[in-house]
Task: inverse folding
């Protein structure tokens, strides 16, 4: 059997993944374990995080599940203390978790919803980057991966204004941190996702089956993403294979941005119904 290239090997490294109980966060956690990493798994859904941990341990790796609201710095900092106690290092941070998406016309959007999106997606993720960054700077190396929606790069419409504003902030945070820390050994990149079939997206499709058809009109490859689609990209960015890659916003979107189809919503350009 052919062996994987050693540049992709994460043996001896430790990754912290938020949103590890399901969807993209779970897929990234398993991917890192499959190439040798040990993990800290953060999620509000502690039972789900423990199941991911059990699956990782079945692969022969260590995994610690931590119940954490990653929008709250007062919970984030103790989580990193736990990481220090369990492993004494961090090589990879994956910011995946995000809060509930408040949808509605911008002229009617409650400012509390805007603040909640910013707290969850920008402030919380910055705090995670800060905590990981301090430890990585001391070690002189590390990789940070921020999950960003295409909403951070193009206008979606469909009442997503607070979410899009926050994701735009995460995209720019990625660029700024990459510039600040590149010369000190830390790489910071983003994976930019279109619609991926996580539990939340499946619920939206069940509530309104028209949504899937409308989304597919903006995806050149003709299908929605699956969580496992992120595995290869995540391993690449976490590993030495990407050692000269930083500040990148890497689309994993089935061709959506290439089609410039972010605004494929009912009533939008070329869309009816």
Result:
């Amino acid at each position: 059997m052919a062996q994987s290239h050693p540049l992709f090997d994460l043996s001896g490294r430790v990754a912290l993944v938020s949103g590890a109980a399901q969807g993209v966060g779970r897929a990234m956690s398993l991917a890192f374990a499959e190439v040798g990493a040990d993990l800290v798994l953060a999620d509000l859904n502690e039972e789900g995080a423990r199941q991911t941990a059990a699956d990782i341990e079945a692969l022969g790796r260590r995994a610690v599940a931590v119940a954490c609201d990653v929008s709250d710095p007062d919970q984030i900092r103790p989580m990193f203390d736990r990481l220090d106690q369990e492993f004494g290092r961090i090589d990879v941070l994956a910011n995946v978790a995000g809060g509930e998406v408040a949808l509605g016309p911008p002229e009617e959007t409650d400012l509390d919803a805007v603040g909640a999106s910013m707290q969850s997606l920008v402030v919380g993720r910055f705090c995670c980057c800060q905590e990981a960054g301090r430890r990585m700077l001391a070690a002189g190396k590390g990789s940070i991966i921020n999950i960003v929606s295409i909403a951070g790069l193009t206008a979606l419409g469909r009442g997503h204004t607070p979410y899009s504003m926050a994701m735009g902030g995460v995209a720019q945070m990625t660029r700024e941190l990459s510039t600040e820390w590149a010369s000190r050994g830390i790489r910071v990149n983003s994976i930019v996702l279109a619609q991926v079939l996580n539990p939340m997206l499946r619920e939206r499709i069940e509530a309104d089956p028209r949504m899937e058809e409308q989304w597919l009109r903006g995806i050149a490859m003709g299908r929605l993403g699956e969580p496992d689609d992120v595995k290869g990209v995540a391993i690449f960015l976490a590993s030495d294979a990407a050692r000269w890659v930083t500040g990148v916003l890497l689309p994993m979107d089935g061709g959506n941005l290439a089609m410039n189809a972010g605004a494929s919503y009912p009533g939008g350009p070329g869309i009816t119904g």
